[in-house]
Amino acid sequence: MSTARGAAAASETFPAIGTSVVVVCTDARELARAADLVRARLDDLDRAASRFRADSELAVINSRSAESARAGRSEQVRIPVGTTLGSCLRAAMRTQRLTSGLVSASLGAALIACGYDDDLDAVRARGDMGPLAADQISIPLRHMIFDEQRGEVALSPGTVLDLGASAKAWAADTIAAELAAIGPGGYLVNLGGDIAVAGTGPPQGWSIGVRDWNDAVVQVVTSTGQAFATSSTRLRTWVRGGIRRHHIIDPRTGLSARTRWAQVTCAGPDAVQANAASTAAIILDDQAPRWLTDRGVPACLMTVDHEVVTTPGWPAPTATRKRHVS
User: Is the entire prediction scored with pTM above 0.85?
Assistant: First the structure.
């Protein structure tokens, strides 16, 4: 995960949407207003896109999809969506296209089968639920379709949506842009490692401290407008069937991705694109450095032993064990 601040900036940190939120302003007088707006927008996001709130719009959609499956229907379920959830689904479709389907919002059923069916603290508190059954390993992936003109999402019965890979990044981008549109100076919004900046930043740029899963800063990089995203296999974890599992699902197996990377941090023009790249890199394992390089994504990939691999455009790492990909 990453944190960031400018040299003379004011910041506030608080918990929301199951993660740590940081809002930073170059003009300290704007901080209270900015923090209030961030809280309000994240409350809107939670009501629209939380998989764990029974009253969220996404939970209602997933429930209708499950009901259709139980009734034995085969036709797609088409459900109207509100403005906020529609924007989240648009970001999810973009993520799916950017990664050729490696990162998909339609993997909720696989996440649930792996044991991630509630807030993480609740999942961990109940302990090991035992091994997965055969039918939980071979859950078919059916991609959702978002019809922007009609404002509808179309799902095959039984599809469960999880927007964790893109909704948070979309919110960081959108909130930072809104803050800059209505207030002076520069703004940085960090939603659990999805970092977006907007407005007039510090003269030397935003200093981004890339933190590992032990919360230690392993490198400091500079953003002059770029967004950053970090995906990790070491933080959002639990145990099922005696196996430590994490929340990044490989659609090719329906299980937590088997990967050498403990975390991947990517830079991009916006947080949605950076998050799509970092999540896909976890899934791609050894193929990730070349995949990122071919797409021009500056990235820092780190193993559990803190071996660091970087792609072109990423500043030289300071870690002891490092390797560049050209």
Answer: yes
